[in-house]
Design a protein that fits this description.
Distance between the termini: 20 Å
Structural class: alpha+beta
Largest sheet: 4 strands, antiparallel
CATH architecture: Orthogonal Bundle
Number of helices: 7
Strand order of the largest sheet: 2-1-6-7
Radius of gyration: 17 Å
CATH topology: Multidrug-efflux Transporter Regulator, Chain: A, Domain 2
Strand content: 5-15%
Order of helices and strands: EHHEHHEEHEHEEH
Shape: globular
Helix content: 40-55%
């Protein structure tokens, strides 16, 4: 299955992105990172996040951990939404704490570093692979049928039994 055919529930998204459910809920309610597969429609409904959504969640977490303001993070997330899916994997996001910059080549990274100010970067490809690795151990859900897709966690016998019973 392709990543576009799989959705992930909130707890799985939290585990893969390294955030709390409270953060996930707040970010969804405020529009920072909304689930692109299925939003919540009132009490009792489950949000469903795409792989790309979870990559963006992990990037937001890293920016917050380094002290970037929420306003600048919102601008960066809006920019990421406008980019193509595969473009993210080749991107490096740089920040001086006040502004977030997109770099797609080593020359652009070098030019920013030449400014002489403190700057940090997030290689989106590394985040991408981290999320892939985390999700391979967790459960997904087929978008078309709702079938639970069991990760490669050999200890999760319950999920395997649930799928056999259906």
């Amino acid at each position: 299955m392709t990543s576009e055919e799989i959705g992930y529930r909130g707890p799985t998204a939290c585990a893969a992105a390294g955030i709390t459910y409270r953060q996930l809920d707040y970010w969804a309610r405020t529009g920072l990172v909304e689930p692109s597969v299925r939003p919540a429609y009132g009490s009792g409904t489950q949000r469903l996040y795409s792989f790309r959504d979870i990559v963006v969640l992990k990037i937001v977490k890293r920016f917050l951990d380094t002290g970037v303001s929420l306003q600048n993070i919102r601008s960066a997330v809006q920019h990421l939404r406008e980019r193509g899916f595969r473009d993210l994997e080749r991107m490096t996001l740089m920040s001086d704490g006040a502004t977030v910059y997109e770099c797609t080549s080593p020359d652009e990274v070098h030019a920013l570093l030449q400014g002489g100010q403190g700057i940090f970067g997030i290689a989106v490809g590394v985040v991408w692979r981290d999320v892939e690795s985390a999700l391979s151990q967790l459960h997904g859900e087929r978008i078309d049928t709702g079938e639970t897709l069991v990760g490669h966690n050999p200890a999760d016998e319950l999920a395997r039994r649930r799928n056999r019973a259906v």
